[in-house]
């Protein structure tokens, strides 16, 4: 396994309708670039993995526990283990980065698509 | 502590000459956006933290163990615990994302600057 990957060579995973992730996994963490369709909804959910994220482009409305905020490029979130969170993309969709520790081993059961051109960069 | 942060409100840290990081820390991981000056050198080093990264803009030459590659936006690296790595930014510098697990608690001893406008977004 190489130390280097290109996003356009990583097979995408459908996390939820409208949420397509390209993820790389390690011993301690998972890094994912997620493309979100315009107005797509991430239903409220939670997981034991701590999660941090960053908007790369576009916008979304994010809720973490009892806090909520409109986020644009350069804005971040942090979600403690077990905290419920949900999101809704803006009218132009979004590309975001999400990182998790420990790794999202549960994603191994998701179906992958063929590699395809990412929306970003 | 809010679940949400804006990069322009995070005090930057000088990691090495020419490497300015804005970092957020959790229980399990650290997420940092790092601005790298043109042609700046990251000297070879290693740490126990697993490290993944992604080029957001610009370019750099990256070496991980005995692999090396030119990287541009959308390309990633993964560095196992303890693996030596080094990098050199391209002629236009770079903005990259680095994530670490466990968190970079050693960065708490670095001096922070006043918040200032980030180069990206």
Descriptive report:
The structure is a homodimer of 121-residue chains. By secondary structure, chain A is mainly β. Chain A has one domain: Jelly Rolls, CATH 2.60.120. Helix content of chain A is 0%, strand content 57%. In chain A, a hairpin with a 4-residue loop joins strand 3 and strand 4 (30-36). The radius of gyration of chain A is 14 Å and the shape is globular. The two termini of chain A are 24 Å apart. The interface between A and B is large, with 44 and 44 residues.
Number of helices of chain A: 0
Largest interface: A-B, 44 and 44 residues
Instruction: Give the beta-strand count of chain A.
Output: 9
Rounded to an integer in angstroms, the radius of gyration calculated over CA atoms of chain A is 14 Å
Low-confidence stretches of chain A: none
Labels describing this entry:
homodimer, 121 residues, mainly beta, Jelly Rolls, eight-stranded antiparallel sheet, 9 strands
Q: What's the topology here?
A:
The structure is a homodimer of 121-residue chains.
Chain A (H helix, E strand, L loop, with lengths): L3 E3 L6 E4 L2 E7 L4 E7 L4 E5 L4 E15 L2 E6 L2 E5 L5 E17 L20
Antiparallel strand pairs in A: 2-3, 3-4, 4-9, 5-9, 6-7, 6-8, 6-9
Summarize this entry quickly.
The structure is a homodimer of 121-residue chains. The first copy, chain A, is mostly beta strands and 121 residues long.
């Amino acid at each position: 396994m190489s130390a280097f990957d290109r996003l356009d060579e990583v097979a995408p995973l459908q996390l939820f309708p409208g949420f397509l992730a390209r993820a790389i996994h390690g011993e301690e963490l998972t890094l994912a670039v997620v493309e979100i369709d315009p107005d797509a909804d991430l239903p409220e959910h939670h997981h034991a993995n701590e999660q941090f994220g960053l908007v790369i482009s576009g916008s979304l409305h994010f809720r973490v526990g009892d806090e909520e905020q409109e986020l644009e490029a350069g804005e971040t979130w942090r979600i403690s283990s077990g905290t419920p969170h949900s999101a809704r993309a803006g009218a132009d969709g979004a590309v975001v980065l999400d990182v998790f520790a420990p790794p999202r081993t549960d994603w191994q059961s998701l179906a992958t698509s063929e590699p395809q051109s990412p929306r970003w960069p």
